[in-house]
Amino acid sequence: MFTRRTLVTGALAATALPTLASAQVSANQIRLVVPYGPGGSTDTSARVLAERMATDLGKSIIVENRPGGGTMIGMANVAKSKPDGTSLLLLTTTAALLPAFDIPLQIDPQKELAMVSQLADIPCVLAVNAKHPAKTFPEFLEWVKAQPGPVHYATSSSGGLPHLWGELISTKAGGKLQHIPYKAAAEALRDTVAGHTQVFVDVTMPVDAQINAGTMRGLICGAQKRVANVSSVPTASELGMPDLEAAVYFGVATTAGTAPDVIAYYNAAINAALKVPAVQERLASMGYIPTGGTPEAYTKRLADETVRWRKVIKAANIPAPA
Questions:
Q1: b/e for 61-75, b at 16 or more Cβ within 10 A?
Q2: pTM, whole model, 2 decimals?
């Protein structure tokens, strides 16, 4: 198993944060486990957060990469840690999606982890080659219905949120969209730009560069309001299809059984960090929309999303990711 640990240190700042739990989190070193390898945007977002929290809390935060198992290795590591407030986890959409497949899991992330705060969303987007005849999403749906056979859409993996979102869109296109999974978003995007596949479905990056360059045309973004890095793409809400709102979302969790005031301590630190312009700018540069909020709101969102996507999984008979 590959594990990478990076130490982020901070000096005590004047930011007003809850002090009651500070005494309980007596350790000066906190772990922030990232269930992906180093170097990607998810890892970078964790480091942006860790850097700011270290400054505000006056503690050292170790960013620890524990990739593998579809994020399950990282989730299980934190779930099985002591509930003493020294282990945090960058949680992803998989905490809602994996339970939706109704398969045996190493842990139940929604029961064995305690949610601290949402962090950021990165909305889904559907795009086609700029030479595609459909100029709008309604035109695209009509075009799909008119094709004699299935229309292929490419995503970065099987069983991920873009795949499920594509299947949800397919229900509005006569069920004629057929999924083609790739090993990475860049490969799927490359083949769509080259015309080898007809449709690209993923989050707003890396396709934003192609949309803004005019080589791809974004037809729908699964957000409530326009997203800065794909501002030309209409949202699901604008199109009168709020049921197509969808985003890959990130948050922070800790071990179940952690004291509520410790969770409140970290929740306040995360929400404070998300209000810092430099943090907002770093996240926005990677396509992320800062969210934040309460532990209760995050817990509810995960539960609601599991119910929502379980229906899509069953209707489309989607197998669990390998």
A1: bbbbbbbebbbbbbb
A2: 0.91
